[in-house]
C-alpha cells in the first residue's frame, strides 16, 4: 500500500491510456547528444532499472548543491577578499553536472532497450527534473556570487523564478496540446555550465570579474542569456502552440480559463514568496538566500509534479495546491513580526516543505508501482521469484 493515495482512480485510469509524445528539434540534442547517449547506453547492464539511472543523475545535482553549500553557503566565496571555493570542487561540479545530464539522457533509452517503459518512468524523470532546477541554479550562482562583480541575491531570486516558469511552460503546453515540446535551452545550458565549472577550476573565479566588453560583465551575460532565452524563445513558442490549438479547437481543454488554470498555484506561490522577500523585517533573503531558494524551488516542484500527474492522466488540474494555505500563514507570521526569529521560521518551514514533497513523491511512486505491478527500482516483477 502507498503511504497516501494522492493519485485518484480517474487519474490511474488515465495513466493506463497514456502514450508518450514529445518533439525534440534542438540540433545539439539531435545531432550530438542523442548519438552520444545511444553509444553510452550500450555499456549499461540490461538488469539496471531506468528509474535507478534517473535517481542517480538527480543525486549528482543534489551532491553538487551540498558540496557548494559546504564551501559557499551564503554565496560570498567568489567575491574579492573571501576564501574561494577550492579548484577541485569546480572540477567535481563539472563532472557531476555532465554525468547528471548524461544519465538524464540515457534513462529513457535504457527503458526502451529493456522493454520497461512505463508512465511511472516518465513521471519520475520529469518530477525529479522539476526539483533539480533549484539545485542547478543555486550551484551555478556560486560561480559569480553576490559580490560587486556578482549578482545580488534579489536578482538571483527573480532569475530562479524565470527558470522555474520556463520549466513549467513545457508541461503546461503538454497539458493543453498533448505534446511535450522539449526546450532548446536545456541541452545548451547543461553542456555550457559543465564546461564553465571546469574552466573556473583552471582560471579561477577572478576571471569572471573581468568585463567582456566595456562595462558588460560575465554576470550580465549570465543573466541576459537566461532571461532572453525564456522571453524570446520558450514563452513565445509555448503560447503560440497553445493558442494555435485553441483556434483550431484541438486543445484538450475547452476554454482559455481551463487552459491557463495550471498557472494559478505557481503564480500564488510566487506572490507569497515575494511578499515575504519584500516585507521581511529581518531581510530574510539577504540573511538566508540558499535556504530561501531551496524552499521556493521545492514548493514549486511539488506544484509542478501535480500538474505533470494531471497532464499525463488527461485529468483536470486542481486550481490550488494545499501547500499554499500553510505557507500563507507562515508568510503572515513572518512579515507581521509575530514570529521574531525569522531564520528559525524559514528553516522549520523549509524542512516541512521538503518532507511534504518527499512524502508526496514516495506515495505517488508506490501507488503507480502497485497499479502497474512493477518495482520502481528493479526490472523484476513483484510476483516473480
UniProtKB/TrEMBL annotation:
This is Ethanolaminephosphotransferase 1. Its main location: endoplasmic reticulum. GO terms for cellular component: endoplasmic reticulum membrane; Golgi apparatus. It is a multi-pass membrane protein. Its cofactor is Mn(2+); Mg(2+). Pathway: Lipid metabolism; Phospholipid metabolism; phosphatidylethanolamine biosynthesis; phosphatidylethanolamine from ethanolamine: step 3/3. PROSITE patterns: CDP_ALCOHOL_P_TRANSF (PS00379). It is an enzyme of class 2 (transferase). Ethanolaminephosphotransferase that catalyzes the transfer of phosphoethanolamine (PE) from CDP-ethanolamine to lipid acceptors, the final step in the synthesis of PE via the 'Kennedy' pathway. PE is the second most abundant phospholipid of membranes in mammals and is involved in various membrane-related cellular processes. The enzyme is critical for the synthesis of several PE species and also catalyzes the synthesis of plasmanyl-PE, a lipid required for proper myelination and neurodevelopment, from 1-alkyl-2-acylglycerol. It comes from Solea senegalensis. Pfam families: CDP-OH_P_transf. Belongs to the CDP-alcohol phosphatidyltransferase class-I family. It comes from the Eukaryota. It is found in: Endoplasmic reticulum membrane. InterPro entries: CDP-OH_P_trans, CDP_ALCOHOL_P_TRANSF_CS, CHOPT. The lineage of its organism: Eukaryota, Metazoa, Chordata, Craniata, Vertebrata. The keyword Nucleotidyltransferase does not apply. Keywords: Acetylation, Endoplasmic reticulum, Lipid biosynthesis, Lipid metabolism, Magnesium, Manganese, Membrane, Metal-binding, Phospholipid biosynthesis, Phospholipid metabolism, Transferase, Transmembrane, Transmembrane helix. It catalyses: 1-O-alkyl-2-acyl-sn-glycerol + CDP-ethanolamine = a 1-O-alkyl-2-acyl-sn-glycero-3-phosphoethanolamine + CMP + H(+); CDP-ethanolamine + a 1,2-diacyl-sn-glycerol = a 1,2-diacyl-sn-glycero-3-phosphoethanolamine + CMP + H(+). Its EC number is 2.7.8.1. The chain crosses the membrane at residues 52-73, 85-103, 123-144, 150-170, 221-243, 255-279, 291-309, 321-340, 346-365. Coiled coil: none annotated. GO terms for molecular function: ethanolaminephosphotransferase activity; metal ion binding.
